[in-house]
Amino acid sequence: MIQPMSLSQIGTSKLIESKPIQQATPAELTQSFGHYLQTAIDNVSAQEQNVHKLNDKYLVGQVDVTKVLIASEQAQLSLQLTSQVRNKVVEAYQEIMRMQI
Question: Which family is annotated (predicted)?
Fold first, then answer.
């Protein structure tokens, strides 16, 4: 059975003790974004390798065709997303280069 709790049971000291919000420097933000992009590209590569492994297993008869098709479609969608993100980054870079100071 659910029992009601009061605020004093939770402990107000935990609510008050919070870490101060730190502002990230531009270098840290760039590094974070770069790390995020690298992780995304690695994931797309891993999905592509998974499709190749499943395809090989399908040819031997160890995997059903539906698993191969699902993995293939997921890899294709990931690759399309990656290329669209790349296109947007290139477009943003070109827009910045066209700006006059």
Answer: Belongs to the FliE family.
Q: Over its length of 101 residues, how does the chain's per-residue pLDDT go in tens digits?
A: 555 555 455 444 444 555 556 787 877 777 777 888 899 899 999 999 999 999 999 999 999 999 999 999 999 999 999 999 999 999 999 999 999 87
Residue with tokens 């590569």: 45
Question: How many other C-beta atoms lie within 10 A of the C-beta of residue 92?
Answer: 10
Helix ranges (H only) for 17-64 are 26-60
Specify if 64 maps to a domain.
Answer: yes
Whether residue 9 is contained in a domain is answered as no
Q: Which residues of 43-61 are buried (b: 16+ CB within 10 A; e: fewer)?
A: ebeebbeebeebeeeeeee
Domain ranges, residue 90: 26-98
Q: Are 20 and 54 in contact (CB under 8 A)?
A: no
